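Researcher: Here's a chain I'd like modeled. Treat it as a single chain, no partners, no ligands.
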Amino acid sequence: MSERFLPAGSVVLLKDSTKKVIIMGYCQAKATDRTQVFDYCGAPFPEGYMSVDKVYLFNHEQIEEIYFVGYMDEEQKLFMEKLTKFREDLVLEK
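Model: Modeled as a single isolated chain. Structure tokens:
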């Protein structure tokens, strides 16, 4: 598994939080500020996506605890490699 990213469907607890989050996407920015790209976007667990104002944007280092790791197969592993390279390239551009 990638050191940087967890698969979609993973359930985590963020630091200074009491609500679990399910990971539903990657490399998102706030609509109001496109200068910062976050590692993940997630939704409250177990509710899932309810509305745009209930989406969490966060980075890997903000994860305090991992409760469940999502499904991983060869396609997911290849995607994670590409995603990790893409994220590293974004950091190098700054």
